[in-house]
Design brief:
189 residues, alpha+beta, Immunoglobulin-like, three-stranded antiparallel β-sheet, binds 2-acetamido-2-deoxy-beta-D-glucopyranose, NDR1-like
């Protein structure tokens, strides 16, 4: 065993270790950047349905109950939690009703539909000068809005805050006693 051999073996060993460390580092980095990286949850208002339309023949007692369904889709490998919030319904700019939406935790890579009911009573709408024209024309247009504040968590250390704004244009048809809605949402973080 000459004195030159030991450094050579040492060099090979050192090289292999370095390469292994680099590979491990790259694998970990890739994992963090792809699978573990917190992603935006999707919060969308699916639909607004007309649950009740009371006193159709007496407009002074019109009482409309809307069902609002919000879908929360969490693409993360960790849970997503959002706090209590509310849905606000307005009729052509006049606040008409609101309903609480309870906070929830969506498990990793899961989704939930959250449903809330909003009761709109006619007395809130009468102050708007468009009401009788719209009522006689048979179509009442509302908008609903909701803001969700949430936080996605992966491995307890990777966290992302997300705020989602959801709004819908709702048309209620008096004679058919049904409703149609167009919803959109946007997210900020
Ligand atoms: C409106 O209708 C709902 C459901 O039928 C009922 O629970 C509520 O008491 C009504 N409200 C008014 C003010 O009539
Ligand atoms: C209500 O909304 C519908 C659908 O967006 C629209 O076609 C209609 O013109 C609106 N009616 C009024 C009175 O604004
Ligand atoms: C509402 O009812 C009318 C008449 O029954 C129907 O033509 C229309 O498709 C219905 N709209 C929705 C959104 O269900």
């Amino acid at each position: 065993m000459g004195p030159k051999r030991i450094p050579k073996t040492f060099k090979i060993c050192c090289c292999t270790t370095t390469v292994l460390i680099i590979i491990l580092f790259l694998i970990t980095l890739t994992l963090f950047l792809t699978i573990l990286k917190p992603k935006q949850p999707k919060i969308t208002t699916r639909q607004v349905t007309l649950l009740h339309f009371d006193s159709l023949f007496d407009p002074f007692e019109v009482n409309v109950t809307l069902g609002i369904t919000v879908n929360v889709d969490n693409p993360n490998y960790g849970s997503f939690r959002f706090g209590n919030t509310a849905a606000y319904v307005s009729y052509r700019g006049t606040p008409a009703a609101e309903a609480p939406i309870e906070g929830d935790t969506i498990p990793a890579r899961g989704q939930h539909d959250i449903t809330t009911e909003v009761v709109v009573t006619v007395d809130k709408l009468l102050s708007n000068s468009n009401f009788w024209d719209d009522y006689n024309a048979g179509c009442l247009n509302f908008t609903s809005t909701a803001v969700f504040h949430g936080r996605a968590e992966v491995l307890r250390v990777l966290k992302i805050k997300a705020t989602s704004y959801s709004s819908c244009d709702i048309s209620i048809y008096v004679e058919a006693q049904n409703a149609s809605s167009v919803c959109r949402s946007r997210i900020k973080y």
